[in-house]
Write a structure and sequence with these properties.
Strand content: 15-25%
Shape: elongated
Number of helices: 8
Number of strands: 16
Helix content: 10-25%
Length: about 375
């Protein structure tokens, strides 16, 4: 019997390169506590499926997986002691059927992240197995979920509605990167989960299906919110920024009161080339953004100082033929940067408040942004 405390497995040559290991029966790693399994290839004819070598490992708590989606499916499934896991990170693609099967077995999770729930792949026609009543995840503090595919079925909402997260602190919900380039996409159905959450400390919403009033109500319900990241194309950016300021709403629904603990704010302004100029006014956006940041930093009633500001522009015509940044967008950033420096003179350390382009890969060609930090 071999006893190992930590195992990191990388199958660069395909499953057969570790066939002897993967063919072992469960219980071989009786002392296993942490597992990292990375594999980019799948061999359908392998004779050692399902993979049970990591099952019956009573000490296993932390698992990181980046493996082909086929390894999560019934006939070739990776078998793990899911019910005892406290940390689970799945980086590769996962069908909604597999996600539902796995997540409802992992009721002891403290941290969970799924980075690619593929809702566009219809190769598996099975309906997700959904429990008849909500499943409680009493220890889950950090939950991150990213969907992939231009169009979502109702299945993901059905799954999320059955997840009860009474103690979650950090919530990241992100729609598909298809959204960077087209309005012809579905948004993340966040209302299937967000209205039943406890007060959060960290919230990220990217391409989420949420109205302005629903978002503001969510923020008001999180008085200790420390980090807020928003990338929403369903809410007009100027209107949203104005409503995040103090005294814009009645006292019972004042998001500024809930944001007085905020230390980090990231905002992405989503602009599509087919918008009329009347729909997006860059001067109005600059005024709203700088006024919001100014009001936060100069607010004497804040409980914690704002330390990090990030602004990004997502525009389908941001790069002229992908050869360089759109001059209009660069000019907008210069105006924002200059206005903030003017309004906040002496309140921010300019040496740590700099502009920078974001990303070199094709998926990020339509994003440009800057960050400012105040130490």
């Amino acid at each position: 019997m071999s006893i190992m405390t930590t195992v990191s497995v990388e199958l660069c040559g395909g499953p057969r390169s570790l066939a002897a290991l993967l063919a072992l029966q469960g219980g071989f790693f009786s002392g296993l506590e942490s597992l990292t399994f990375v594999e980019n290839r799948f061999t359908a004819e392998a004779d050692f499926f399902p993979i049970t070598v990591f099952d019956h490992s009573p000490c296993l708590r932390k698992v990181t997986l980046r493996i082909p989606r086929e390894m999560f499916e019934i006939d070739s499934r990776l078998v793990l002691p899911w019910i005892q896991l406290t940390h689970l990170h799945v980086g590769g693609p996962l069908l909604i059927q597999s996600f539902a099967t796995i997540i409802f077995e992992c009721t002891q999770l403290q941290v969970a992240s799924f980075h690619d729930i593929n809702l566009a792949d219809r190769s598996d026609t099975r309906e997700p197995v959904i429990p008849p009543s909500p499943v409680v995840f009493p220890h889950l503090k950090d939950f991150r979920l990213r969907l992939n595919g231009p169009f979502f079925s109702h299945d993901i909402s059905d799954v999320l509605e059955m997840m009860h997260l009474p103690n979650v602190n950090n919530l990241d919900l992100a729609g598909s990167t298809f959204s960077f380039f087209s309005r012809n996409h579905d948004l993340f159905p966040v209302n299937s989960i967000i209205h039943r959450l406890p007060p959060l400390r960290h919230l990220l919403l990217v391409y989420a299906d949420i109205t302005r009033s629903e978002l503001l109500s969510t923020i008001v319900a999180c008085p200790l919110l420390e980090s807020l990241t928003l990338c929403l194309d369903c809410i007009k950016p100027v209107s949203l920024l104005k409503n995040l300021m103090r005294k814009r709403l009645n006292r019972e629904l004042d998001p500024a009161l809930s944001l007085s603990n905020l230390t980090s704010f990231t905002f992405t302004c989503v602009i599509f080339d087919d918008e009329d100029e009347s729909e997006f006014d860059s001067d109005a956006f600059i005024e709203a953004f700088t006024a919001l940041i100014t009001s936060w930093i100069t607010d004497s009633k804040r409980r914690r100082p704002l330390q990090k500001i990030s602004l990004f522009i997502c525009h389908d015509d941001l790069h002229d033929n992908k050869m360089g940044l759109n001059e209009d967008v660069i000019e907008m950033f210069k105006k924002i940067d200059g206005t903030i420096q003017k309004n906040l003179a002496g309140l921010l350390d300019d040496s740590v408040f700099t502009a920078r382009p974001i990303g070199n890969c094709e998926d990020l060609l339509s994003i440009f942004g800057f960050e400012r930090r105040s130490i």
